[in-house]
């Protein structure tokens, strides 16, 4: 078992003929992901790598192939529309890799996706992988291996680092999810923790947060109140300098400075394991399995 | 991207927000002339991208043109949170009856732009929010409709009892909202919004922060960037498409990805060192980016060792290796370098480095420990220095 994606996931790649889209579509195919369609406006009727049909719109792609998941590699200015197009076409999981999506665009995208009953992961994220079954996004497949640990993170390469350390120590993963670091994203820590709690194969969860915002503190509260499975956390940015912050609104809205120590304290308070270094995940997870 | 107060005020004036006149000057003589022209008492305000400028002595009253000159002279010599003051805004001092706060920010939690207003405005607004949260009204704006008039009126009556003042404030909020959306802002703030003894509602200070992701499609906003108000190394980094923040330590860090970059800095500290910077070379790296990164890191005289930590996903580690080789051929390093790379095209990268006389590691902890040790131990001649001497 796993969360969000598995061997039955059928994927449409938006921007499949672009530089990043084509490169990663190939990587996903090699990994064994069931890519059933690609979309590039104006290239409908062509075929990608001789096996994947390309359509002009996501609507056409879904009608023809029944794809249930979309992964987006289109430039930032078109990304908001691409996410809404996917949800409107009936795709249930939308994964947006694109970095640099304006945040005001996301204030419009988020409610639209919810109304359509779809789940959005990202934007500005590495996507997700269920080792041995499916990879949707850009997480390098070879660093993952199947096993009992759920991984969720706001960062890309830091996730790779931790997953790689786990894999090297013989600790496999159910699903690894990169939720992205943007202020407004479709799926947050709690969504993933909830899914891992329900997933019978997940026996422990590793969570990697960062300074800024209050998502980690809320995740810690969720762990304390709702989770029976052990969770180990890490916060990046303990040495980051306080920014030359402008204005007062940020502090007023959250009532929190979003510092690393605040977040780490909330992990301790929730009874979670706290990794001081990425490598500390290995023993902390091991003793909880 | 931060805008200066005077730039934010220019934008808000275009949307009709009542704001007293003002002029930006960079020399004290000119401040004196402007003060003379306005007559009466003026305020001289540092234009710098840092909060807390009032508390740092960057905002002063001047009762005469001569005093304006003297005050401007003093403020222009200031450095606030590491940034030199290059310009001051000279504006007539207003008579203030009450001070309110009006702000809009994109809120992670409600995933909307949220208005926040308070009748207790001024520099202690954060304190007000923390100790008397009932004095703050928050209103998330539905992106489908934008700010509606009745919502603006509700907030305005939270600030003022007088219907004329409430109507004036509601109008200002609608203008602020339009400016916020049209400019692609992530924050817009009027603090204080004051009432004068004659009953007018006027914005005395304004701040705007623009979402960097908007700048490609908002050229008229992008041109407002003031590079003289930013640290030179950060300007250089941005031009090379890198994210760089200078710190005070001596281990120069070059990492791909912000999370890993922060975790690397934390690890430097964990092993007893101090990072000299945050530097994220981003995703699809090319050798030129690495060359630029090394140039920026080595221009900091405090740097005693350089640490590369690259986990190749989108980033191809051979690109990074080629960048290191190119950069060091152009200008040999004067400090030792520790390279950790793993992931995409690792074998090619390690071969390139080895052929060019560099050692590379694949484990993060050992690499960080070694860099810290090299930065703290007394200077030993590096490979390139030794070669240089031999030649």
Q: Could you explain how this protein is built, in words?
A:
The complex is a heterodimer of chains A (289) and B (391). Chain A has 289 residues and is an alpha/beta fold. Chain A has 2 domains: 10-121, 3-Layer(aba) Sandwich (Rossmann fold); 127-286, Rossmann fold (3-Layer(aba) Sandwich), CATH 3.40.50.261. Helix content of chain A is 36%, strand content 22%. Chain A has 10 helices and 14 strands. Chain A has helices at residues 19-31, 58-65, 76-88, 103-115, 157-168, 189-198, 215-226, 249-254, 260-269, 281-286; strands at 10-14, 34-39, 47-48, 52-55, 69-72, 93-96, 119-121, 127-130, 134-137, 146-153, 173-178, 204-210, 231-236, 273-274. In chain A, the strands form 2 sheets. Chain A has a 7-stranded mixed sheet, sandwiched between helices. Chain A has a 7-stranded mixed sheet with strand order 9-8-11-10-12-13-14, sandwiched between helices. In chain A, helix 4 links the parallel strand 6 and strand 7 (119-121). Chain A is globular and about 55 Å long. The two termini of chain A are 17 Å apart. The mean pLDDT of chain A is 94. Chain B is of the alpha+beta class and 391 residues long. Helix content of chain B is 39%, strand content 23%. Chain B has 14 helices and 17 strands. In chain B, helix 2 (28-38) runs antiparallel to helix 3, helix 5 packs across helix 6 and helix 10 (287-298) packs across helix 11. The longest helix of chain B has 21 residues, at 163-183. Classes of the chains: A alpha/beta (289), B alpha+beta (391).
Quick structural gist:
The complex is a heterodimer of chains A (289) and B (391). Chain A has 289 residues and is an alpha/beta fold. In chain A, 36% of the residues lie in helices and 22% in strands.
Q: What is the CATH architecture assignment of the largest domain in chain B?
A: 3-Layer(aba) Sandwich
Largest sheet of chain A: 7 strands, mixed
Question: Secondary-structure element order of chain A, as H and E?
Answer: EHEEEHEHEHEEEEHEHEHEHHEH
Helix-strand category of chain A: alpha/beta
User: Overall pLDDT of chain B, averaged?
Assistant: 92
Helix content of chain A: 25-40%
């Amino acid at each position: 078992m796993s969360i969000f994606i598995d061997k039955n996931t059928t994927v449409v790649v938006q921007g499949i003929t672009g530089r990043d889209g084509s490169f990663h579509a190939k990587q996903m195919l090699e990994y064994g992901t069931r890519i059933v369609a690609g979309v590039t406006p104006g290239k409908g009727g062509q075929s990608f790598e001789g096996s994947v049909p390309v359509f002009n719109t996501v609507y056409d792609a879904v009608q023809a192939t029944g794809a249930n998941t979309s992964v987006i590699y289109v430039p930032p200015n078109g990304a908001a529309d691409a996410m809404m197009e996917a949800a409107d076409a009936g795709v249930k999981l939308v994964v947006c890799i694109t970095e640099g999506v304006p945040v005001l665009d996301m204030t419009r995208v988020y409610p639209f996706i919810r109304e359509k009953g779809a789940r959005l992961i990202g934007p500005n994220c590495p996507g997700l992988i269920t080792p041995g079954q499916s990879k949707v996004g850009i997480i390098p497949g070879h660093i993952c291996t199947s096993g009992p640990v759920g991984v969720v993170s706001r960062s890309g390469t830091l996730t790779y680092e931790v997953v790689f350390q786990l894999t090297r120590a013989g600790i496999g993963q159910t699903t690894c999810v990169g939720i992205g670091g943007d202020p407004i994203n479709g799926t947050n820590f709690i969504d993933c923790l909830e899914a891992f709690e329900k997933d019978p194969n997940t026996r422990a969860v590793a969570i990697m947060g960062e300074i800024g915002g209050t998502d980690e503190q809320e995740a810690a509260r969720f762990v304390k109140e709702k989770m029976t499975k052990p969770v180990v956390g890490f916060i990046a940015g303990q040495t980051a300098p306080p920014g030359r912050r402008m204005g007062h609104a940020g502090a007023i809205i959250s009532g929190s400075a979003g510092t690393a120590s605040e977040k780490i304290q909330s992990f301790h308070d929730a009874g979670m394991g706290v990794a001081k270094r990425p490598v500390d995940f290995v023993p902390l997870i091991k003793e909880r399995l | 991207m931060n805008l200066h107060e005077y730039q934010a005020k220019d934008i808000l004036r275009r949307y009709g927000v009542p704001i007293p006149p003002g002029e930006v000057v960079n020399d004290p003589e000119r401040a004196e002339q402007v003060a003379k022209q306005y007559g009466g008492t003026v305020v001289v305000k540092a234009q710098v991208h840092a909060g807390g400028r009032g508390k740092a002595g960057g905002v002063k009253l001047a009762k005469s043109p001569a005093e304006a000159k003297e005050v401007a002279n003093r403020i222009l010599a200031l450095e606030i949170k590491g940034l030199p003051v290059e310009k001051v805004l000279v504006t007539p001092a207003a008579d203030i009856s009450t001070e309110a706060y009006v702000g809009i920010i994109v809120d992670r939690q409600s995933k909307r732009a949220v208005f926040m207003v308070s009748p207790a405005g001024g520099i202690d607004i954060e304190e007000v929010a923390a100790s008397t949260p009932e004095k703050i009204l928050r209103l998330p704006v539905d992106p489908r409709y934008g700010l509606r008039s009745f919502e603006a009126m509700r907030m305005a009556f939270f600030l003022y009892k007088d219907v004329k003042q409430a109507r004036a404030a509601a109008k200002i909020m609608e203008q602020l909202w339009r400016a916020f959306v049209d400019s692609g802002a992530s924050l817009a703030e009027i603090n204080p919004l004051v009432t004068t003894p004659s009953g007018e509602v006027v914005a005395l200070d304004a701040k705007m922060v623009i979402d960097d992701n908007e700048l490609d499609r908002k050229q008229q906003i992008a041109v407002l960037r003031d590079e003289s108000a930013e640290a030179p190394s950060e300007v250089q980094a941005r031009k090379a498409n890198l994210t760089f923040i200078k710190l005070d330590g001596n281990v120069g860090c070059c990492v791909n990805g912000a999370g890993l970059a922060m975790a690397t800095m934390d690890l430097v500290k964990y092993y007893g060192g101090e990072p000299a910077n945050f530097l994220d070379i981003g995703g699809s790296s090319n050798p030129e980016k690495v060359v630029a990164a090394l140039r920026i890191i080595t221009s900091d005289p405090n740097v005693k060792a350089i640490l590369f930590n690259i986990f190749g996903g989108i980033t191809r580690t051979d690109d990074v290796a080629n960048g290191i080789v190119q950069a060091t051929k152009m200008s040999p390093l004067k400090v030792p370098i520790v390279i950790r790379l793993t992931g995409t095209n690792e074998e090619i990268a390690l071969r390139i480095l080895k052929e060019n006389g560099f050692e590379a590691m694949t484990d993060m902890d050992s690499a960080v420990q070694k860099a810290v040790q090299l930065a703290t131990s007394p200077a030993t001649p590096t490979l390139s220095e030794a070669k240089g001497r031999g030649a």
